[in-house]
Fold this protein.
Amino acid sequence: MRYRVTKTYGHELGLSACFRQWRADSHCRHLHGYALSFRLEFAANELDHNNWVIDFGSLKPIKQFLVDTFDHKLVIAADDPAISTLMLLKTADCADILVLDRVGCEAFAKLVYGHIHNWLSLTDQDRVKILSVECREHGANSAIYYGDHYGIAGSDAVYDY
């Protein structure tokens, strides 16, 4: 792809998510949270009529997906052995909970990549590809998902409880 652009939704957006890595032997097995940020990389071989890879103004649905998915959420892995205990927080109206197959920046980047890939195909933007999604916890830690640039993007399941 000849042209590449990036769009960043930074920490200032306030995507405050809480999660835990229940398999970890470290303190990461406890609930902890971050104001997540996301960096999206798009590419195209040809520019549109505006001479752009993608109209950044058209990404409002992507921003909304990020807010709906990660803002003030408790994200729980579907196989977390404490899921029934954690779900009591939702029952008590103490947490807005999202259950995913996997939890962590790598899984979040893959989830967002799959969503954007699907969105691009639904919005008839075949000229544009999502190349990568980076999910950043803070200045020192991030994960990048590159996916399949040829149109096959899987995403983990999202469960509605």
User: Anything to note?
Assistant: The CA atoms of residues 60 and 92 lie 32 Å apart. The chain has a mean pLDDT of 91. Strands lie at 3-9, 15-19, 32-44, 73-77, 97-100, 129-136, 142-145, 158-159. The chain has three helices and eight strands.
